[in-house]
Amino acid sequence: MSTALHPAVTVCDHPLVAHNLSILRDKNTSTEQFRATMTRLGKFIFMAATADLPMTRTIVETPLTKAECKMLSPEVPILIAPILRAGLILSELAIDIVPSASVYHIGLYRDEETFQPVTYYNKLPSTIDYSVARIFVLDPMLATGGSAVAAVDIIKKLGTDVANITFVSIIAAPEGIQHLTEQHPGIRIYTGSVDERLNDKAYIVPGLGDAGDRTFGTM
Ligand code: PRP
Ligand code: URA
User: Fold this and answer.
1) Whole-number Å distance between alpha carbons of 11 and 9
2) pLDDT tens, residue by residue, 43-54
3) Tens digit of pLDDT for each residue in 143-166?
């Protein structure tokens, strides 16, 4: 399903990812269609990002016999960390796929003059062993990488090894990948596309515009 292009980055190159990305990029796509498409597309990328979750063996009695099965390891908590706002749309599908996950909302916005991230919300689940947890930071857009770096800074302070942190995005810019991997070597990045570049307003080109505004209809 996925093609590794850079040691840190996996681009999900499935035809349905490309198809749904085209719908998201189209400026004429309605808010309703944008949300539905983001959810559909995010599932592919989240599934790829979670492909190596640790498993444990178990015996299950089927109606016919005992079967050797595998389940998610109960010793490894899974934490979904959406960056508000746009990450919320991805967290809904992630919880749907991994119902046992806890959610750590990280409120960050990018100051549109300095492009620096500003933190405004940080609500941490208290019952998690952060030293072993697998953490999935969700944000559709990796642009300058400032928001992603700030979110991972916050998570690393909890005692998490960067090897257990995966950044899940829909579109990434080369500049953001460089910044995030330089600041947090060892992090893994899953995305639907690595686009060309940033423009002078630090928007991803060709991109899809403002992911938060298009998701929540606040254009
Ligand atoms: C967008 C996006 C990322 C950030 C990416 O959020 O969802 O969080 O910009 O840009 P960066 O890589 O240059 O930091 P925004 O700041 O627009 O906030 P919003 O989701 O609340 O609209
Ligand atoms: N944030 C977005 O929502 N889109 C971009 O292209 C860059 C930052």
Assistant:
1) 6
2) 999 999 999 999
3) 999 999 999 999 999 899 999 999
Q: What is the edge-to-edge ordering of all strands in the sheet holding 141-142?
A: 141-142, 171-172, 193-194
Specify the residue with its C-alpha closest to ligand 2, atom 2: 210
User: Residue-wise over 81-116: b if at least 16 C-beta within 10 A, else e?
Assistant: bbbbbbbbbbbbbbbeebeebbbbbbbbebeeeeee
Return the pLDDT at 187. 98
Summarize pLDDT for 128-143 with one digit per residue, the tens. Answer: 899 999 999 999 999 9
Residue ranges of domains in the chain, CATH in brackets = 2-216 (3.40.50.2020)
Task: Give distance in angstroms: CA of 100 to centre of ligand 2.
Answer: 30
Between CA 219 and CA 208 the distance in angstroms is 13
Distance separating alpha carbons of residues 15 and 13, to the nearest angstrom? 6
The pairing of beta strand 66-72 with beta strand 102-103: unpaired
Please tell me which residue in 110, 134, 188, 214 is annotated as part of the active site: 110
- Residue 161 known to be catalytic: no
**Number of continuous H segments (helices) and E segments (strands) in the chain:** 6, 16
- Please state, for a pLDDT cut of 90, what percent of the chain lies above it: 90
Per the CB < 8 A criterion, the answer to whether 62 and 41 are in contact is: no
197 labelled catalytic: no
Atom 3, ligand 2: residue with shortest CA distance:
210
* Claim: this prediction has a pTM higher than 0.90: yes
